[in-house]
Design brief:
The chain is mostly helical. Among the domains are: 99 residues, Tetratricopeptide repeat domain (Serine Threonine Protein Phosphatase 5, Tetratricopeptide repeat, Alpha Horseshoe), CATH 1.25.40; 122 residues, no CATH class. It has 29 helices and six strands. It has a six-stranded mixed beta sheet, with helices on one face. A hairpin with a 2-residue loop joins strand 1 and strand 2. The longest helix has 22 residues. Pfam families: DYW_deaminase, E_motif, PPR, PPR_2.
């Protein structure tokens, strides 16, 4: 046997081993060493070897080396182009990945399903529906649009770009036999990520009905659990938890974190804590989730204990974790602890405070009545855009709560400089003037809002009874259906008993408006009967809950805005009168009312 034939035999023997090493390599040193060995063997120039090298360099994030290799290839096939495209996408260069698809078309190499799915996923990272439509059109022309992998990537792309209707159209166009677990999970995730929880729940019901024997995977289950959290559907969430246990996904971190979040947002912190306690060696994400949940319940010292346990276990907190701890301090009046954390974030954890941390700290000072210090910190933060709007809106609300009209006016001037998403803050400013007896100034704020075309989203509250949500708006008792009259009578009766307890306010009048009546110039009601003038939505939801939810069970009410002080006081008094527990989730936190007191201790 000649030396040449011996070398060829050696190369043939080594090649499979080297290719195997490339497939498993994830660091540059290993890939470069294997590349050198292939060059020494004279086997690096083949299309197959070059493709493996392209993929390996891409996994290492070395797109420059991958591109240099690609440009030097004499022959390129679809795998070559797709490997480089995937490398760009993985390295956070999605536009470069999509540009390769166009260059590929000019080269005459036809793309395959994996090429289109990689391009669509790159568009998803960009949240660029326009670019995604171009990829979609190319996939249609090439005949790959109905491929399950491509369709699933397109569903995800449209969802990330906020085009939920387009995502559903792609999903519905898929042949039923092509819809697999990943396809269903992707569509469920689109609904959950776009705050369309009811649609996600409905789609999951379709899967259970039409999905034959398809077992839900952990991606599906986590998406549906997140949907239940978003819309406060505790009953369905419990059912999904049962499925999690049945299918053996209880040890999955993604599902566990979703369950922690769902139970906390549905008003059962104890269940959240139980789910968390069953996680073996929780990472930063489960810890962050339970700390945020604990903060929203006003359990500041519990949140700090969890944080201490987390750090003690060597789990490095992230920016969101520290924001959760700051929220806990804010909602529990732990001002000194919160400020100490803000000042030590960089030195202790290597994290620079961002606008959200400063806003939370300003909110914390405002809640505690330290308004001058809050203003100083607001000026120090030097935030811009929407972050600045949130900061000054929070400060304006604190000024109004502490009856500091002088400072409220200063914060209101800052807020009025913005043009979007200012309705809530301007209403707070109007209420601050009204509370100070300056009716003309309050009216001027409303007049300015009308002139600028600014409308406030209507407040609503909902309560879940036997897996059905009943949604109430201020003054509208009609969602209670046939029991609307009983709700009005019950609230009237409760108001009388509240006065006997020394309650000074009013929860509203039980007068039923005629079809053509309206409450005042600023509040208009839909036509028809079933209106209680002045009654806020959470009280109407509570009234229905008192009628139909058995004693011994807590009544849980969800609200899309912050609970007002008058309703907060009313809930406290009513909880003592009827000797029942109420849990209210508002925009900021949870309130647990029991025997005349609230868990927030007025830090809300």
């Amino acid at each position: 046997m000649t030396a040449t034939s011996n070398a060829a035999a050696g190369a043939a023997t080594l090649m499979p081993l080297l290719i195997h090493l490339l497939r498993g390599a994830s660091d540059l040193a290993s890939v470069s060493a294997t590349h050198a060995k292939l060059l020494k063997l004279g086997a690096a120039s083949s299309v197959a070897s070059s493709n493996h090298l392209l993929a390996a360099y891409g996994r290492c994030g070395c797109t420059a080396l991958a591109r240099h290799l690609f440009d030097g290839m004499r022959d390129r096939n679809v795998v070559s182009w797709t490997a480089l495209m995937s490398g760009y996408a993985s390295a956070g260069r999605p536009r470069a990945a999509v540009a390769l698809l166009r260059a590929m078309a000019r080269s005459g190499v036809p793309p395959n399903a994996f090429t289109f799915s990689t391009a669509a996923s790159s568009c998803a990272r960009l949240a660029d529906a326009g670019l995604g439509r171009q990829v979609h059109a190319r996939a249609e022309v090439a005949g790959y649009a109905c491929d399950s992998v491509v369709s699933t990537a397109l569903v995800d792309m449209y969802g990330k770009a906020g085009r939920v209707g387009d995502a559903r159209a792609v999903f519905d166009a898929m042949p039923v036999t092509a819809r697999n677990a990943v396809s269903w999970a992707s569509m469920l995730s689109v609904y959950a990520q776009n705050a369309l929880g009811h649609d996600a729940i409905q789609l999951f019901a379709e899967l259970r009905t039409n999905g034959e024997d398809m077992a839900p995977n952990h991606f599906m289950l986590s998406s549906v659990v997140n949907a239940c959290a978003g819309v406060g559907r505790l009953g369905i969430g419990k059912c999904i938890h049962g499925m999690v246990l049945h299918h053996g996904h209880e040890d999955n971190d993604v599902v566990a974190v979703a369950l922690v979040d769902m139970y906390s947002k549905c008003g059962i912190y104890e269940y959240s804590k139980k789910v968390f306690d069953r996680i073996n060696q929780p990472s930063v994400i489960p810890y962050t989730s339970i700390i945020v949940a604990t903060a929203k319940y006003g359990l500041g010292r519990c949140a700090l204990a969890l944080f201490s346990d987390m750090v003690g276990r060597g789990v490095q907190p992230n920016s969101v974790t520290l924001l959760g701890v700051l929220h806990a301090c804010s909602h529990s009046g732990l001002v000194d602890t919160g400020l100490q954390l803000l000042r030590s974030m960089r030195s202790e954890y290597g994290i620079d405070p961002c606008a959200s941390h400063y806003t939370c700290a300003v909110d914390m000072l405002g809640r505690a009545g330290q308004l001058e210090a809050a203003f100083e910190l607001a000026d120090e933060a030097q935030v811009n855009g929407n972050d600045a709007l949130m900061l000054w809106s929070s400060l304006l609300s604190a000024c109004r709560n502490h009856k500091r009209l002088d400072l409220a006016t200063m914060a209101g001037q800052k807020v009025s400089e913005f043009t979007q998403d200012v309705a809530g803050a301007l209403v707070v400013m109007s209420n601050a003037y009204a509370s100070a007896g300056q009716a003309d100034d309050a009216a001027a704020v409303w007049s300015n809002m009308r002139r600028r075309g600014i409308r406030k989203d209507p407040g609503c509250s909902w309560i879940e009874i036997k897996d059905i949500s009943y949604v109430f708006y201020a003054g509208m008792v009609s969602p209670a259906g046939s029991r609307a009259g009983e709700v009005m009578l019950l609230l009237d009766e409760l108001e009388g008993k509240m006065r006997e307890k020394g309650y000074k306010g009013r929860i509203g009048s039980a007068r039923v408006l005629d079809a053509d009546e309206e409450e005042d110039g600023n509040h208009h009601h839909q036509e028809g009967r079933g209106v209680m003038v002045g009654v806020h939505s959470e009280l109407l939801a509570l009234g229905l809950g008192l009628l139909v939810i058995p004693k011994g069970m807590a009544i849980r009410v969800m609200k899309n805005l912050r609970m007002c002080r008058d309703c907060h006081e009313a809930f406290k008094v009513i909880s003592a009168i009827v000797e029942r527990e109420f849990v209210v989730r508002d925009l900021n936190r949870f309130h647990h009312f029991r025997m005349g007191s609230c868990s927030c201790n007025d830090y809300w």
